[in-house]
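Example record for the data management plan.
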Amino acid sequence: MGYLSQPALKNLKKYSYKGVDESLVSHYLLTPYWNWFIKLFPLTIAPNTITLLGLCIVVFNVVTLLYYDPLYLTEKDGATGPPQWIYFTWAVGLFMYQSLDAVDGKQARRTGMAGPLGEMFDHGCDALNTTLEVVLASRALNLGRSWWTVASQIATLANFYLTTWEEYHTGILYLGPFSGPVEGILMIVTIYVITGIFGPTFWDKKLLTFTRLDRIPQVVQHVPNIGLNESFMVFGAFGLAFNIFSSYRNVIKATKSDGESSLKPLIYLLPFVVSATLQIFWLLSPSYHDSAIIHSPLFLPFLCAWGLQFAHQVGRMILSHITRSPFPLWHSMWLWSIVGVVDAQLPFLFDRPSLIQSTPKRTAVFIYLTLAVSLITYARFCALVIRDITEFLGIACFTVRKKDGEGVWRETRDIQQDGYVKRL
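Corresponding structural encoding:
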């Protein structure tokens, strides 16, 4: 008995990717580049290998952060931080990730490997990259250990969740005029370049002072003079609100055309709300201003554990989409998070000391254990799903091979449409 049921496996053969890209940047600037870039890859390279390569580049960027700033401290906290040239490597790495993420689908069509496995693998890597870029971008913006980084994590994950939720209900991946995979990534690349030139402290400059709008009394009276980095977070909040409106509008159209309720899909937003709420309450221990996790070296592993749990959550959503299965409302890692939250909040809830996280050392052990459990459960999910899909569809994950009509592994180019090997 595999991870996927037989009905779910059979539905894999009914899956077909549908996407809409309304980005002008994508159409007029990036697409010609992507069409040139894909020709650099031989047909012997599997599309999932290209996707994984992009994620590995981002992981390498995170490794450089850990090498130069293992405690995730900013300059205002007294740390020296990474040398400024490192931020240029982050910019190049993220741009290369975007490029590889864009051409893996083209490679899939070139090699005849397009299908639901590529959809799963692509979205899985994107989900992991989301948290990794929050970590890097928050460091480049000189936010570091702060609630602003937490807010950035929530907003970024919410945008990704909304896109997946929308695709589940509409069957179409919508990328609007301003989307995260295109303009959002390019904006972060620009942030890395600016940080590489001027340093992270550049983003601490006040918005009104930097733009010289503080000379206008009417502006000063109504607009707070917050930092450029904090202004970027506010901009992200407006972007999230716009994406919520756009996604729900598309879902309403899809549900009405199918004669279904347009309110029921809102229930499927609750898993993200529950997950994010648990993480926030965990971080609130012992108080908002004195978080034991945010203001310690544990903040980075906590964010990574959160990101792995999120990737697992949206991975199950995507799997439900491509197999036409019920939406996954429950996630088993919530039980672990609930234990962490209740234990951390015991002093507030029952005026009793924490049982597990009673000392900084025990808290560190529990957070790193949370990271390990999150990694193992997500890795197990990926391994089981890849195994089931490849065995049922007779395709390889990281090589350009398929099973022929007799069940023998062959190069894709050697198999005819009827499933049998080409005869000379």
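Summary line stored alongside the record: The CA atoms of residues 59 and 132 lie 8 Å apart.
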